[in-house]
Structure formats: C-alpha cells, structure tokens
Amino acid sequence: MTEQKVEAVERALALLECFDGGEESLSLAELARRSGLYKSTILRLAASLERFGYLVRRADGRYRLGPTLWRLGSLYRRSFDLAELIRPELKVLVEATGETASYYVREGDSRVCLYRHNSPKAIRHHLNEGQRLSLEGGAASKVLTTFWTPPEERPWAEQVRRDGYGVSLGERDPEIAAIAVPVFDRGGRLRGSLSISGLITRFDAGQRAIALEAMRGSAARLHEQLTERE
User: Which PANTHER family match (predicted)?
Assistant: First the structure.
C-alpha cells in the first residue's frame, strides 16, 4: 500500500515537471507525451492536483500551473531572506556587462535559480526563476560543488578553489558561456553563487574578465550585508 501511494505521488510530481519548459499551458495530449502517462491516469491525477490548487484547467481544456505553487515558491524564496540584497546586485551586474545575471543556491544534488535579471539584449540566455538544474556542468555548478561543505572533488575543483571562480564554455548549452563566483556569509558558509551568462560568441575572455571584476565587487558587498545581519 505504501509503495502505491509513493508511486502516485511521483506520477503527480512528474506531471508538474512537464511544465519545466516555461510554457503557460499544456494540453492533455502534450502532458501525455511528456510524462509518458496514459491520458486516463493524467485526468485522475490532474483532478487531485486541481483540488489542491497545483493545477488549473482552463475553459479550453488546457492545463496551467496553479496558485499553490506560487505560494509555496514565495515561501521557499522567503526562507532565504535575500531578495532585497540580491536583486539590486543582479541589476548592477547586468548594467555593467549587458549579459544575464543570476543567483543560484544548492538543493541536494541540484542547483536552483533563485533570482534572475535577464539581459536587455534581444538574443540572450534566458532562464526562469525557480528552475532546477543539474550540478553536472555550468559555472555556478562548479562553484556550488567546490565550496560546499564538505566540498566535492571534481577534475576542475582545485583550479576553481585556487582561482575563486568557475567558468563554463558550452558545457550545459553549446551556445552559452558563463562565469560564477561564490557568496559567503560572516561564518564563511557558502550562501550561493552569482553567475553571468551570455552567448559564447560574444561573451569572450575580455568580457568575462569585466564580468568577474563586477561580480567580485557584488560578492564583497553581499558578504558585508550578510555580516551586518548576523
């Protein structure tokens, strides 16, 4: 009986994960294709998810994410209590570099884009706040694994630890380059990682050097502000 309940929960969560591409709504057929579940199963799961506000079924029969997820997401971000500190710094970084700036935190074996300020350029690296990504590949992933407690030893960890930053050149996406630095609090605990990312064809070594200097300034200011709060 316990296994059946767990399986049902995992199927329901898999249904919610279908919206990871950022679409506003999905049809029953699209949910079936992405989840691999039968339509009859999806209808039963969706009914329960609707009842608790995780999904909303529109008049045209398509499904969109419900208000419960927004409420829980807001509570999740509030638990870090960093928005008023991080967002201004992301804005500063975008103004300094013209590229997209993000703040990532680690959650188990994943990293979560907690806050984001997108580049004003028409062609840019776009990612939604709250999106969960693997720790395999990416500048922020390198920082979050190298400076985590206990640190995880990877082929690049020693260099990241020595340099104090991580670089990714087309690792997660062949068209994207990124550079990231750690953010520490007064006790030397890793709170997260600032990252700047852009098209690999324009975010070259010179631009990454400018971004690194700007991020180190932001990380230092955040360290001071976090210290004052403790």
Answer: HELIX-TURN-HELIX TRANSCRIPTIONAL REGULATOR, ICLR FAMILY (PTHR30136), TRANSCRIPTIONAL REGULATORY PROTEIN (PTHR30136:SF39)
Nearest Cα neighbor of 64 from 46, 88, 40 is 46
Beta-carbon count within 10 A of 124 CB: 17
- Choosing from 72, 99, 121, the residue where a domain stops is 72
Q: Cα separation of 101 and 180, whole Å?
A: 10
Backbone angle region of 61, left / alpha / beta, with phi > 0 → left and psi within -120 to 50 → alpha: left
- What pLDDT is stored for residue 22 in this prediction? 66
Residues 93 and 110 in one domain: yes
Regarding whether 122 and 12 lie in a shared domain, the answer is no
pTM of the model: 0.70
Widest CA span in the chain: 59
* Domain coverage including residue 52: 2-72
Q: Return the pLDDT at 161.
A: 93
Q: Report the distance separating Cα 178 and Cα 76, nearest Å.
A: 26
Query: Is 49 found in the same domain as 150?
Result: no
> Token pair of 49, please?
């998810």
Domain with residue 162: its CATH number is 3.30.450.40
Are residues 181 and 155 both part of a single domain? yes
- In angstroms, the CA 134 to CA 29 distance is 27
- At how many degrees (to 10) do helices 205-229 and 83-97 cross? 160
Helix (H, G, I), strand (E, B) or coil at 121: coil
31 & 59 share domain: yes
Contact 69/52 with Cβ under 8 angstroms?
A: no
Q: Enumerate residue ranges in the chain where pLDDT < 50.
A: 1-4
